[in-house]
Amino acid sequence: MIVRFWGVRGSIPTPGPSTVRYGGNTPCIEVLPKGEGGPLFIVDCGTGLRELGLNLMGRGLPISANIFLSHTHWDHIHGFPFFIPAFIPGNKFVIHGPVNFNERLEDIVSGQMKYSYFPVKLDHMAADIKFVELKESSFEIEGVKVTTQYLNHPILVLGYRFEYDGKVMVTEYDTEPYQNMFQGAQEDDMDDLLFGGGDDKANIDQEAHDEADPIVAEMNQRVIEFARDADLAVIDAQYTAAEYPSKIGWGHGTVDDAIRVATQGNVKRMALFHHDPTRSDDALDQFEDHCAAELLRLKRPDIVMFAARERLEISF
Ligand SMILES: [Zn+2]
Ligand SMILES: [Zn+2]
What we know:
The chain is α/β, with parallel strands linked by helices. The protein has helices at 48-57, 105-111, 185-195, 198-226, 255-264, 281-297, and strands at residues 2-7, 28-32, 41-43, 64-68, 92-98, 128-134, 138-141, 144-150, 158-164, 167-172, 232-236, 269-273, 304-307, 313-315. The longest helix is centred in the C-terminal third of the chain and has 29 residues, at 198-226.
């Protein structure tokens, strides 16, 4: 399996002197499950897709690919209108993405190509483009097993697990750990003091909290199991542990969450991904140092953890 990173940044492209080493393009990952010459998979259509498109044009026509969208937030689709191969007749693309309850996947992706936003409509792209809406499922494409799983983000997000010939690559980003939303009695004590409510309310809240706890733990365990034994897992590490408390509910995790998934899921390699727009190259170097120190402390120096950077190629 060959994996190439074309965009690793979250939220918005960040060109500039402090991001030249890791890159400023938004998410786009090329996956060749059967190696060079085999089927082409593309995960997400951030601005990294533009460069991948130019690179593909240099490899010869026709081009066909299965594209997998984690979700349709801007930073994961805004490279698509600039994907040159989609304008060329004879090329074929199947765009997979999570089902949305209000709108069709095709309408969401093409919505950014209305004349108010962009001069060319999706209909005018000359390649054969099809859309497939996914829920949690498992299926095969050209002999490659694809499994999807929902993650924890403000809209439905899918993680992908690609398996071929004993090799496994997993994506789990635009996600944060599931939280128990029911406060326990302890937190409520202050409420009771200020607003009344008494012991009954505290007991009910504590009961709800205790009931939810194992469910939350199970959902977090599912995220770990989805990455189990992966040769490469690409994981959301947008924040530091210190930054996270003011970002809870924004749908992104921390470097330490990534370390937990890597160690408990026994992955071989883990790429920290969806770098915060404010994260400089030097800060990402420090993320790698932090991971190395933590993995030593946890007696797992066998796990390779690194910050994903543009143009990095990994084969296994
Ligand atoms: Zn994102
Ligand atoms: Zn998102």
